[in-house]
């Protein structure tokens, strides 16, 4: 399927919507217990399970509207599906919380593996959206590898030592905002490596 243009506001809504809805559902039912098939499930687990079809529907909508899915979207969707299934099967919310560690940790490992080979896999993914010199991509890849590793460690510490409600709030808002601000700061700091688009020369005066 050929890639198509999609309204950027709609794209952001589809990408961020599942996480926001998970937060809303959790805050609504966090103190409730649900009995399904003779098993008692906490509000957190029900909210986590509700997120799975919401996320899959969002990914499907993005694919239908844009004709393309990023590797990050596919990987995140599979991670949510896998850990959501484990959460339901074992009736243990820890599996869903580990999902964030796996996602961030995997990104750190993938980027780090590329750096060991002297390559920036980040450039392979984002070069069309952000033209930049290879040196800039290598610097950004090194810094983003460390950022993903730090987020993975932070998630492990937080879910193991803090309340579920605090983890949900940090997972929904703090982690994405921190990553977004980090990227904006890095792009600004590496602006000298950004390749500006060439402007066509102006036409001279008409010849007589």
TrEMBL record:
PANTHER family: INNER MEMBRANE-SPANNING PROTEIN YCIB, INTRACELLULAR SEPTATION PROTEIN A-RELATED
Pfam families: IspA (PF04279)
Transmembrane segments: 12-29, 41-65, 72-90, 102-122, 143-161, 173-195
Function noted in UniProt: Plays a role in cell envelope biogenesis, maintenance of cell envelope integrity and membrane homeostasis.
Protein name: Inner membrane-spanning protein YciB
Topology in the lipid bilayer: Multi-pass membrane protein
Record keywords: Cell inner membrane, Cell membrane, Membrane, Transmembrane, Transmembrane helix
Homology family: Belongs to the YciB family.
């Amino acid at each position: 399927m050929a890639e198509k243009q999609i309204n950027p506001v709609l794209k952001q809504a589809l990408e961020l919507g599942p996480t926001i809805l998970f937060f809303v559902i959790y805050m609504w039912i966090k103190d409730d217990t649900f009995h399904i098939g003779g098993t008692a499930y906490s509000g957190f687990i029900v909210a986590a399970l509700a997120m799975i079809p919401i996320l899959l529907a969002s990914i499907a909508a993005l694919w239908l509207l844009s004709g393309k899915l990023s590797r990050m979207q596919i990987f995140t969707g599979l991670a949510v599906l896998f850990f959501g299934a484990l959460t339901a099967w074992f009736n243990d919310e820890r599996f869903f919380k580990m999902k964030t560690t796996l996602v961030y940790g995997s990104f750190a490992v993938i980027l780090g593996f590329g750096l060991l080979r002297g390559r920036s896999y980040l450039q392979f993914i984002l070069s069309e959206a952000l033209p930049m010199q290879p040196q800039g991509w290598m610097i950004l890849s090194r810094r983003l590898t460390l950022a993903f590793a730090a987020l993975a460690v932070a998630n492990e510490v937080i879910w193991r030592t803090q309340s579920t409600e605090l983890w949900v709030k940090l997972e929904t808002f703090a982690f994405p905002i921190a990553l977004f601000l980090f990227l904006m700061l890095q792009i600004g700091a590496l602006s000298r490596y950004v390749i500006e688009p060439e402007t066509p020369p102006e036409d001279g005066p008409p010849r007589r």
